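Z., the sequence and structure:
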Amino acid sequence: MSAEFIPVCEPNLGGRELEYVTKAVSGGWISSSGSYVGELERAFAEYLDVPYAVTTTSGTTALHLALVAAGVGPGDEVIIPAFTMIASAFAVCYTGAKPVFVDAAASDWNIDPRLVEAKISSKTKAIMPVHVYGHSCDMDALLQIADAHGLLVIEDAAEALGSFYKGRKCGAIGDLSGFSLFANKLITTGEGGMVVARDGRFIDRLRYYKNLCFPLDGSRRYVHDDIGFNYRMPNVLAAIGLAQLERADIYLEARRSNAARYNAILQGQRGIVIPPELPWASSSYWMYSILIGDDFGPSRDAVMIGLKAAGIETRSFFVSMHRQPALAKYGCDVSGAYPVTDELARTGLYLPSTSGLTDAQIERITSALLALRT
């Protein structure tokens, strides 16, 4: 019999999901009007210790909604990391603004604050740090730059629910933030997202634009003063999310435990760089990510092929924003060098990171990985 296939990530649905979904369906509230939407928003805000959270349909639309609420639009620029998932850039493009790229820091794989000021122009409206793979950015350095230039900070915390920066939860530090609730995230609604705001001046704009710019008083007069979006989360998905959030700390501990077990085996191994966790950070380890050095022998791509043959799924790291044809077509400045980002994209992969991984599975994954080394 062939070995069990180990997926790179899969959701854990071991809580009250079925109970809550059944209540939503049996009560007839399956649209965005049901009670679970508001309950999830309140519980999410409480989890992050922030005053406001607004459900939406994905992490991408969460970022778009945050940018729109912040007043970002055509003619503006938003600084983002070159090393990120392309949704970060697309969300900026949806507003008509231009994303401007900054290379990663080798120390934590996140946007390098030392390179940000050189990218600020008279058109810059916001900085969007991305907490890549669950490791926080150096937020104090970025906030200091933003304050000096009168810029907003919009956190892309899609991968960082449960992550901390100097004791503060990621996504609760900037002016606004966006979270993803996709199936591979720490908690999930299948598809979905959340916008978090610390300042009440944004909340009405978030609710207004996410609901086709219907009047906030709930009237249905079908006269719309602005172009809005249908980013409403269905009640059924919110029911799943509420059950997931109740177990968020359990899943967080599981991911951190996975990382500790991986690290115990892989740290110091020739040709392998384990994921960073700087002293001021507590990573959620959304994905356990490693670099395959040239001294490993086989290339990163060859390693992925070898692990696939062993029944182990992996994913390569993101391709740099300056190498994305879509962004070049859009008119982004894709010139310049981004050496750290390019090296991460060339050598990085992440291993199976499901919250429910067993010791035996991690042993099998790491044994298969090390067996490929020459």
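The mean pLDDT is 96. The chain is about 35% helix and 15% strand.

Let me know what you think.
H.
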